Request: fold
Amino acid sequence: MGFIRRTSALVRKETIQMLRDRRTLLLILIMPVLELFLFAYAVSLTLDHLPTAVADLSQDEASRQFLDALVASNYFDITLYVADEAEALRAIDRGQVKVGVVIPPNFAAKTARGEAQALVILDGSDAFAVSAAYAAATMVAQNHSTELVRQKVRRLGLPVGERMPIETSTRVLYNPNMDDMIFLVPGLAALLLQVLTVNQTAMTLVRERELGISEQILATPVRPLEMMIGKLVPNAMLGFLEMVIIVAVGVFWFKVPFRGSVALFMGLSGLFVVSGLGLGLLVSAVASTQKEAQQISGLLLLLTMMLTGLTYPRPPMPAVVQAIGSLIPATYSIRIARGIITKGVGLSFLWQDVAVLALYSSLIMILAAKTFRKRLD
Reply:
């Protein structure tokens, strides 16, 4: 009874203190929404309409058809015409364009003989642009070449089918229009929740330790474990509210379809919150000042962005890098969020990630409790 009475008193005290600081509370609730809008509108995983410089040294029908095919693909926008390859290189150096296309003289004659080659120069300083442009240029060249072969066969009076011997039929599951928002929003919900819970818990505890508030509370009969629980419960409720806000904005503003069970997602969100709070406790135990806590939180944010599969796929990463990413709870939270929101799958498909995240949350809370007690005793 004493444990429950002391812990509930601390929960009430922390809740009242949180509600009194309305400006901070409002900032905590608004920040995830602002960050969601920033990520959603600033981050684009589909690159198209790349500014392109063209040096057409042939100026014939074949070169114009090839350029029209590039533009029709919607991956290339011809924004600059230059005299030669050197000027195209200078335009890329100046940052005016991302792609340069050089068509050699006598392009039509070489095309008729099957010897034509067009040079596509890519800006390798931009990894996303170069990969998108390389794939698009290869696809356009292949399609255009196939069409030219068909036209040549028709002119010779030979029979030609309208269909190629082998064709692929592609179907994109869960996101048929390949909308970036459907891919990003579920992962961002898990990411932002971890970032906010880690920062909020770490900064609050370190600030109170710097001001001597923690020591004053421990001068009372309250034990360190009770103090930890008393601080975590209000933060957990606030984190859960933040999750609801982020998902609601994603569903109603960005029109991201929620295909799975809302009840299952909300239930598993508790694991997201607990794992983030436990990580925040560990950060507060390691950091002695607020500046150190900010630096550690910044490092965690960078690792979370890079190693959890939010934007970069994990399978191609080296084994050591994947192991580091496996120590970050958002790795599992993101897969769970995408599984429920985007795919609409249930616990039978997600149980491994759920089990790992539950074990992770339990271990990190035990470790955080020990370090918390060690630093405050």
